[in-house]
Write a structure and sequence with these properties.
The chain is α/β, with parallel strands linked by helices and 199 residues long. It has helices at residues 6-19, 25-32, 57-68, 75-83, 87-93, 95-107, 121-124, 141-150, 163-178, 186-197, and strands at 47-50, 72-74, 114-116, 133-136, 184-185.
Length: 199
C-alpha cells in the first residue's frame, strides 16, 4: 500500500473519529489537540485492534490499515470462512473450541500483520498478545448496551440470564480484565498522525 498524502491522512483520521462511539468521539477529538503521549507500532510489529463487543473494531480496521499502509484482517470473519460456521452457532455449541481456534488463528498470522480480534479476545487470551501492539477501541457502556440490544446476530454469552443482565455483567467483568492487559489507547495512536497533519 502506498503512503498517504497529508490530506488523505487527515481525511482518514476524520473518518476514523466519525466511526467511533458518538458519545466518546467529541472527547477524543479534543484530546488529540492536547499534549499527550504518541504511540506507533515498531516496524514489523503485529498490530491488534481489540476491545469490547460492538466497540467498532471492524469499522476502525480499514482506517487503521490506511494509516499504517497495511492490509487489515478481521479474525472473526476469517474464522467463519475457514470453519464454515457462523460465530453465533459456534460459540453457542462449543465455546471452548471457538476460543482455542481464535487463539490459534492469531498466533498463526505472519508477524507485521494488522488484525481486528473479537470482543472476548482480550479477556480469554491476554498472553497471546505479548509483544504485539494492541490498540483498544473505546466504547461507553450506554452505546455498548444499545448496540447489543439492537444486534440479534451476535452470539449470546450467558443464555441462562436475561440479555440485559448478560450485557451488564459481561461489560463490567471484561472492563476489569482489559485493565490488566498492556494495551495502547486509540487516542495515543491517533495523536501521532494528527500532529503530522495539524498546523
Amino acid at each position: 500500500m502506498s503512503e498517504l498524502s497529508a490530506d488523505d491522512r487527515r481525511t482518514t483520521l476524520e473518518q476514523l473519529l466519525e466511526s467511533l462511539d458518538p458519545r466518546l468521539s467529541p472527547r477524543l477529538r479534543e484530546a488529540l489537540a492536547l499534549p499527550g503521549p504518541e504511540a506507533r507500532p515498531a516496524p514489523g510489529q503485529t498490530v491488534v485492534i481489540a476491545g469490547h463487543r460492538s466497540a467498532g473494531k471492524t469499522r476502525v480496521l480499514p482506517y487503521v490499515a490506511r494509516l499504517l499502509g497495511r492490509t487489515g484482517l478481521d479474525l472473526d470473519k476469517e474464522l467463519e470462512a475457514s470453519s464454515g460456521r457462523s460465530l453465533r452457532t459456534w460459540v453457542a455449541e462449543d465455546p471452548k473450541a471457538f476460543r482455542a481456534a481464535e487463539r490459534q488463528a492469531l498466533l498463526g498470522i505472519p508477524p507485521g500483520s494488522l488484525v481486528a480480534v473479537g470482543g472476548g479476545f482480550l479477556s480469554h487470551h491476554p498472553d497471546a498478545l505479548a509483544g504485539m501492539f494492541t490498540l483498544i477501541v473505546p466504547v461507553s457502556f450506554e452505546t455498548y448496551r444499545e448496540r447489543l440490544l439492537a444486534d440479534t446476530s451476535r452470539p449470546r454469552l450467558r443464555p441462562g440470564v436475561t440479555l440485559e443482565e448478560e450485557i451488564s455483567t459481561v461489560f463490567h467483568e471484561r472492563e476489569a480484565l482489559h485493565a490488566r492487559v498492556p494495551t495502547v489507547p486509540l487516542v495515543d495512536f491517533l495523536r501521532a498522525f494528527w500532529r503530522e497533519v495539524t498546523p
